[in-house]
Amino acid sequence: MNIIYMIIAFVVISLIQFGCYSNVKDQRDTIESKTVAKYEKQIAEDKEAQRIALEKVNEELFIVSNELEAEKQNIKIEFRDIRHETQKIITDRIYTECKLTNDGLRILNRAIETANTSKPDD
């Protein structure tokens, strides 16, 4: 008799486990399908946003390339012969941005003269 109770208990426990497993499996499948749907929706939205951004960049690129081509058409190359030659010899140094005092300028000029001569200054 104990064996029959044990078999019945085993069958009941097995059925309970199977029922719980089925319930958990159904819940898991429901959650999984909702999650997959959520991620698929997010992926679709991201792809759409990326497509819109790509279209916008392509439009801007098209506009810029058209402007570049228009500017290339406006460039004129002109070849001319230059017939005049000029030569200007600067003999005096003009210090426009000189921040030296008179004494400092005198020392600088003396150093330049000394550097340009072959003999050192006495």
Tell me about this structure.
The protein has 122 residues and is mostly helical. The protein has a domain at 2-86. Helix content is 72%, strand content 0%. The protein has 2 helices and no strands. It has helices spanning 2-74, 102-116. The longest helix has 73 residues, at 2-74. Keywords: Coiled coil. Residues 54-85 form a coiled coil.
Helix content: over 70%
Shape: elongated
Uncertain stretches: none
Largest sheet: none
- Average pLDDT confidence is 80
Secondary-structure element order, as H and E? Answer: HH
Category from helices, strands and their pairing:
mainly alpha
Helix segment tally: 2
**What is the terminal separation in angstroms?**
136 Å
**Overall strand count:** 0
Strand content: under 5%
Please identify the oligomeric state. single chain
Specify Rg, calculated over alpha carbons: 47 Å
Coiled coil: 54-85
Keywords: Coiled coil
In brief:
The chain is mainly alpha-helical and 122 residues long. It has helices spanning 2-74, 102-116.
SSE blueprint and pairings:
Blueprint: H1 2-74, H2 102-116
Observed structural traits:
122 residues; mainly alpha; 0% strand; elongated
